[in-house]
Design goal:
The complex is a heterodimer of chains A (219) and B (385).
Chain A (H helix, E strand, L loop, with lengths): L3 H40 L8 H14 L4 H7 L1 H8 L5 H25 L3 H10 L3 H12 L1 H27 L1 H11 L4 H30 L2
Chain B lengths: L23 E12 L10 E12 L3 E5 L6 H8 L7 E6 L2 E2 L5 H9 L1 E5 L10 H11 L4 H15 L14 H13 L5 E5 L7 H18 L2 E6 L2 H7 L2 E6 L2 E7 H6 L4 H10 L6 H10 L3 E7 L5 H10 L3 E12 L2 E11 L2 H14 L2 E4 L22
Parallel strand pairs in B: 3-8, 3-9, 6-7, 7-8
Antiparallel strand pairs in B: 1-2, 1-4, 4-5, 9-10, 11-13, 11-14, 12-13
Helix pairs in contact in B: 3-4, 3-5, 4-5, 5-6
The chains are: A mainly alpha (219), B alpha/beta (385).
Chain lengths: 219, 385
């Protein structure tokens, strides 16, 4: 029998850790990814700030980081994590690789959504005499808001997934909980409960994202 | 910005086309635009605009016509600096815009309205938001923006649609929003890039009527890009024909329609004035009508009553079997193909008289020339075919 009386507080704490890691990562990588994505979009040939060199550099950075399996990425940048966060273990340490990887992926997601947007609207905004920076902020991003919300929802869920992996190398959170009390103790019940919690979390996030995007699309 | 004026306010007066007859608001001198080759393996460099010189008279409506790829869209984008020219000079209201910085260009653009084929409205903003956008960019105060937007929406006839999103509007309504947005800052130049090409014929005419009003009420100079001669016929005072980046013909709309010189212009004019019978039609007409078939160019020098009178005076039975007349800039233009029955000498005399007034063309008949004695029932269709 599973000793839920002892496990429940640990589960609660793990849940909080996951929420903490995911929230901080989403905030940091969401903003960084937005800036990276907009930069990639704007510096593309023919776009508002067309700049071959910048585009190639940013594109290259994204392309080398993105394909690295996350679990390997965490260990690969451990020296950097040590310098920046002072430790390589624990929830706080896990945030750095999470934010870096998520930021890069979000950058690509944002870029792809912006590239698919209508260049005619940008032209109309330029014709009105608006500045290029203001066009990016006031036209380009708002015009792509619905697909961006869906992209961010997708990334939010990917970050939940990442947090579970970060847990494996001592990041804490639900992933850590499932490994320590489920997998390693041969307690399938604990694993199942954790999986259910994660599924419910992900479903709730996806539903919220869909609803929000739908509201914007409907106008 | 306290006083809200609809229409150009520069200099405090609206300059009509008569007063400004000699003043060009836009002039291009040997302008060219080359798009460089894209990368090493990309498509070759394209000379989209090739040594174009033209003047746009203040207060006029100019049509730039050509097939797609003729460079007309690029040409207008050079005027408001959306594209940079690679040669020549472009004067907008006396200012050379070819070497301006992006910051300086923004000021020029704010004084030039632009409307588009696909309307290019901001889908994330309401109609109100779309029209308010250029005002916000121009630094209008919030309390001034509201009445101004209301005034503009009223002018374009969609006063009740302010809180709608563009997606909810028909194409014609969306273009009205586009026009309201383009007029927001009282531009004295309006660029219309295929503004009616995505609209059905009826909506096209409504939008053209609106553009006409913009020109007449505010004296706004309008540069219309189109591949539809119908648009030129309806609203343009002058027309420029472009082909492969070059201007192949230009002139007052009526004279270009009356006597197109370039081959491409001739083909374009034929799409708007379907009045000359084709080879096949002529063969059919010749079989159906035994009389002599003559096509007469109808214009101010030879209007239909004058032609009819010449035939009547010489006792010729004339009937229109093909053709049409229309108005270009309120002046009659067209061509009518008549079947003429009567004394051969009288017909010859009539044709000789007509030839002094206008262009005529006699077509070969399938049967031998009809003699005066022959009584034939005239096909007096009378109207345009």
């Amino acid at each position: 029998m599973t000793d839920w009386e002892t496990l429940l507080p640990v589960l609660g704490e793990s849940f909080q850790q996951t929420v903490f890691m995911v929230s901080v990562t989403v905030l940091v990588s969401g903003l960084a990814g937005l800036i990276l994505g907009v930069t990639l979009y704007a510096t593309r040939p023919g776009n508002l700030f067309a700049n071959q060199t910048l585009f190639v550099v940013f594109n290259f950075i994204v392309n080398i980081i993105r394909p690295i399996p996350f679990i390997i990425f965490i260990t690969a940048i451990a020296p950097l994590t040590l310098i920046l966060m002072g430790t390589t273990i624990g929830t706080t340490a896990a945030i750095l690789p999470m934010a870096l990887m998520a930021g890069v992926v979000i950058g690509r997601v944002v870029e792809q959504n912006l590239v698919a947007s209508d260049p005619g609207v940008v032209e109309a905004a330029r014709a009105v005499g608006d500045s290029r920076l203001h066009i990016l902020a006031a036209v380009v991003v708002p015009e792509a808001l619905a697909p961006l919300i869906l992209g961010y929802t997708f990334m939010l869920i990917a970050i939940v997934d990442m947090s579970a992996m970060a847990g494996y190398i001592g990041g804490g959170g639900l992933g850590n909980f499932a490994i320590m009390y489920g997998y390693q103790q041969f307690n399938w019940e604990v694993t199942l409960v954790t999986v259910v919690i994660i599924i419910v979390m992900v479903q709730a996030l996806q539903l919220a994202g869909n609803a929000l995007a739908q509201r914007i699309l409907r106008r | 910005m306290a006083e809200i004026v609809l229409g150009p306010v520069a200099g405090g007066e609206v300059i009509t086309s008569q007063e400004g007859a000699m003043s060009a608001i836009v002039s291009l001198h040997h302008v060219s635009k080359e798009f460089p080759r894209q990368g090493r393996s990309g498509p070759a460099a394209v000379l989209a605009v090739d040594d174009v010189s033209l003047e746009v008279e203040r207060g006029s409506v100019l049509g730039i016509v050509g097939y797609s790829g003729a460079g007309k869209s690029t040409l207008v984008r050079l005027i408001n600096g959306l594209e940079r020219s690679t040669g020549g000079s472009i004067l907008v209201k006396g200012q050379d815009v070819t070497h301006l910085s992006e910051r300086e260009l923004r000021k020029v653009r704010a004084g030039i309205g632009m409307i588009f084929q696909q309307f290019n409205l901001l889908k994330s903003r309401t109609v109100y938001g779309n029209v308010a956008y250029p005002l916000k960019v121009a630094g209008w105060k919030k309390e001034d923006i509201k009445p101004r937007v209301a005034q503009l929406l009223d002018f374009v006839g969609i006063a009740d649609k302010g809180d709608r999103y563009p997606r909810r509007l028909s194409g014609g309504q969306q273009q009205r929003v586009g026009i309201a947005r383009a007029l927001a800052n009282n531009p004295d130049i309006l660029l219309a890039d295929e503004a009616t090409s995505a609209l059905d014929p009826e909506t096209t005419n409504e939008v053209l009527k609106l553009l006409r009003r913009v020109n007449q009420e505010f004296g706004t100079t309008i540069i219309v890009i189109t591949h539809e001669m119908h648009v030129v016929r309806e609203i343009c005072d002058a027309v420029v024909m472009m082909d492969k980046g070059r201007v192949v013909e230009s002139g007052e709309t009526y004279s270009v329609f009356k006597q197109p010189r370039a081959e491409s212009t001739r083909r374009f004019v034929a799409t708007a004035v379907h009045s000359r019978p084709s080879r096949e039609t002529l063969d059919r007409l010749a079989t159906a009508h035994p009389g002599r078939l003559v096509t007469v160019a109808i214009s101010e020098t030879a209007p239909t009553p004058v032609v009819a009178e010449i035939f009547a005076r010489l006792g010729i039975h004339s009937g229109v079997v093909f053709g049409g007349v229309t108005e270009i800039q309120h002046r009659i233009l067209g061509s009518l193909t008549y079947e003429l029955n009567g004394d051969a000498g009288a017909v010859d005399a009539a044709l000789a008289q007509l030839a002094l007034l206008t262009a005529i063309e006699e077509h070969a008949t399938s049967s031998p020339p009809v003699h005066s004695a022959t009584e034939s029932v005239l096909a007096s269709s009378g109207g345009a075919s």
